[in-house]
Amino acid sequence: MIEFGSKNEEVGRSAPFLISTEEGEENEIKFVVALAAEGEKGTNIDDMGIPKLGALLKDSVPLYPSEKVVYEILFDEYLIHQTRNESLTRWDDYEIRQGKYFILFEKSRFLDYMDIVVERVIAKAYWKKGWKHYGIYCQNHIIDIISPSIPAIRKVHLTADRVCKNVKGSAED
């Protein structure tokens, strides 16, 4: 089972895939992620008509969302969340974080940003125990959530067509 702030050995060496995001009516948000599965070496290669690129990619191993290891992550309440393009994200030594792909932040720019966009006095009145910054680092997406509650994480079963239809470039495309 995955856990925010831990090494998450089960995840392996590749980031998971974001399958879906769903916001509920009462400030809840749910993410469905599939762990990465490796395809067969040298398959599903698009060299875009460039022979040198094809030669480089022939030894590559494609990654696909696993239909066997899928998790639903439900935050029953949140203060703020954002999704960023993974390719445009940079490392920041200012931040203090723990975990592999499912991150728990002690200090972050996003927590600092919250002071600008959320009325902290009102938030503190509602959530006396405070809140935490959670990160989900996926293929193509970086998701940040600030929530006063610990997310509920459960393993779910999705059919292959549901996993693949939500992920561009999957084995079914």
- What is the total number of structural domains? 1
Radius of gyration: 18 Å
Distance between the termini: 29 Å
Estimate percent helicity.
10-25%
* Biggest sheet record: 5 strands, antiparallel
Total number of beta strands:
9
Alpha plus pi helix count: 4
Question: Helix- and strand-based class?
Answer: alpha+beta
Q: How do the helices and strands line up, and which of them pair or pack?
A:
Layout (H helix, E strand, L loop, with lengths): L16 E7 L5 E10 L12 H7 L5 E13 L4 E6 L10 E3 L3 E6 L1 H9 L2 H7 L5 E6 L3 E7 L4 E5 L3 H6 L8
Task: Give structural notes.
The chain has 4 helices and 9 strands. The strands form 2 sheets. The protein has a 5-stranded antiparallel β-sheet. It has a 4-stranded antiparallel β-sheet with strand order 1-2-3-9. 17% of the residues lie in helices and 36% in strands. A hairpin with a 3-residue loop joins strand 5 and strand 6. It has one domain. The chain is of the alpha+beta class. The mean pLDDT is 89.
Short key terms for the protein model shown above:
4 helices, alpha+beta, 4-stranded antiparallel β-sheet, 9 strands, 5-stranded antiparallel β-sheet, 173 residues
Overview in brief:
This protein is of the alpha+beta class and 173 residues long. 17% of the residues lie in helices and 36% in strands. It has a five-stranded antiparallel beta sheet. Strands 1-2-3-9 form a four-stranded antiparallel beta sheet.
